[in-house]
Amino acid sequence: MTEQLAVTLTVASIGFAAAVFFCIGNAFNSAKLITAQAIPYWDFSKPMARSLTAQRAQYVVGALLLVASFLLQIAAALSSSTILVALPQWLQSSPVFVLTVLVPTLLIARGFSKILYRTTLRKVLLLSKSK
Asked: Which of 83, 118, 94 is nearest to 3 (CA)?
């Protein structure tokens, strides 16, 4: 596998992970959640806060992955199309290589999204109590 192909496959995998996180915010916005968000509240709404916090976490992670993907696209354009990358034999297959990049990227991004969700929701709940 050439250096350029390895970087290009990495870029495509991370770009796909970014797209997944951007889509999660809207794909899981069910009719029940949309209804809850559309009802005006006179006071603080925990369901609304949870939904908006989850969307924020997913969009932030998606944006970070997208930036990483664009930076790697520049690296792919600058990398050599003739230099071979010293990879183990089992990583020489493009589908295996993509899965090897994609699965850890999604797992790390999901973990970061959960951490961001919890810390943001904690701040939102504290702010709601102070008002």
From this structure: 83
Burial of 120 (0-12, 13-18, 19+ CB in 10 A): middle
Contact 13, 105 (CB under 8 A): yes
Contact 22, 62 (CB under 8 A): yes
Total residue count of the chain as it appears in this document: 131
At residue 42, the 3 state secondary structure works out as coil
Position 20 pLDDT exceeds 70 = yes
Domain map (residue ranges) of the chain: 3-130
- Listed residue (47, 63, 60) closest to 15, CA to CA: 63
The model carries a pTM of: 0.73
Residue 30: pLDDT band by 50, 70, 90 thresholds? low
Mean pLDDT of 25-43: 71
